[in-house]
Amino acid sequence: MTTTTRPSSAPASTRPSFADLFTPKLVTIFREGYGLGHLRADMIAGLTVAIVAIPLSMAIAIASGATPAQGLYTAIIGGFIISLLGGSRFQIGGPAGAFIVLVAATVQAHGMDGLIIATMLAGLMLVAAGYLRLGTYIKFIPYPVTVGFTAGIAVIIFASQLKELLGLSLTGAEPGPLVDKLMALWHAAPSASTPAIILSLATVLVIIVLKRLRPNLPVMLIAVAGSAVAVTLLGLSVETIGTKFGGIPQSLPTPALPTLTFEKVITMLPSAGAFALLGAIESLLSAVVADGMTGRSHRSNCELVAQGCANVASGLFGGICVTGTIARTATNIRAGAHGPVAGMMHALFLLLFILIAAPLASFIPLAGLAAVLAIVAWDMVEKQAFATLVRASKGDAAVLLVTFLLTIFRDLTEAIIVGFALGSLVFIYRMSKTTMIEQHMPLVAEDTADASAEDRVPYDSASATDPDMVIYRISGAFFFGAAASIASVLDRIADHHRALVIDFSAVPFVDSTAVSTIEGLARKAARGGITVYLTGASPDVAQTLRRFGHITEAVQFEPSINAATEKWRQRGE
Q: What's the pTM?
């Protein structure tokens, strides 16, 4: 008897250990050897990223309903811990534009204490997800879903900056829903500030021109600094960080827990779940982008644990949600970073900015920061991918547009869930179309692997074309999506056939629905006096078939079509 060795029977020692999965990349680079040259490269990269992160961290925090200082705290504390404990060599953590919608809604509904509680709960959820090794499954989010919700977030971010871009004055709080927001801004149009509009347009223009002419410069910081200089020298009457927030403290706050009650924790669980889901997607997507740029590979579950710890720590210091950021991570790589030390240096340089230059931030106009976020929103939209998916197929277009519209007009979490469900249905439909069943009429002997002489079955073309026997071959995954179409074909067996052969040699996978379909068919055939042979099943498929129900009582397993026809021919001898 021939013994087949399956891949799943590999020794347990070949599987990744706990240490393999959860050792931070910082430890890995130190094991490889870390010298002064590496430290110099990481310091330069860290300084470069910090210069980019200063205006972004403040702008994202303000747009989220927090203070600019909270954005910097988030980048310093969260960014340091993500690099210290993370599973990616190059990941840069901080506040992200993708969170603006959720964070702003949470602050509006539950206040700053509610946001901090939700941030810390999300951190605990991410730690649990990492240790449960759920990071591996984040990659199953369909591409049209990520493109759709990213584009939707970009639209909402841009809409949230219109008030500052135009210098509008609203009589009440700015509405959250997009349609209500646009209506309120339209009614406030007469209050538009000419200096704010000119400053916004000038800042956008400077960023666009410098990106094209000098892309290696910190264009956003230059544009924001230029807007602050213009406001100070020209005495422009526009709102600044100083007039709205009173400036930025020159030190980190003391770690403290928010006021916790059981009812408050339960109330914040939905928001925390949304933060955790988006944070996992955003950070692992950023890590994948980094892998593609460098040829390295990240440890997804280790990265989730680091993201979780970073969110808990950020909340303790009064920060907001922190995650891996694609743009800053890409900047880190292009600046020549060697490893996670660059991310840690980026956080230390931001801390140095607070300690030394915090008073200068008071002169930054909100219109300038709004212009930065307008550019960020434009860059977030994967315009080519969006257009390609709309044209690619009706299924991809439907998933993309449904996710995009739900993100804008409903809720980000709902958009991801519905988009994922719709994408799964599209996938199931496509997979069902790849599974085929056809009547098999062999004219030559079936190809078989070399075996001993006693394992070989003589081929008899007469028995293979016996009018009492019908042979069907299934090709592709036999699962619930294809079960109905296959069952409809097999149910049409003519009464004059006395034997049915179902060949599974081209079936890589079966599920319980497939087993139930075959078992029901076999019992129906048995009542009509028809013998059913199941041939060519791989060891894994055969094991699945035998595991469910009592199929062994209804069918006869044979290694090949030739073996089944030979057994049928010999039944009367």
A: 0.74
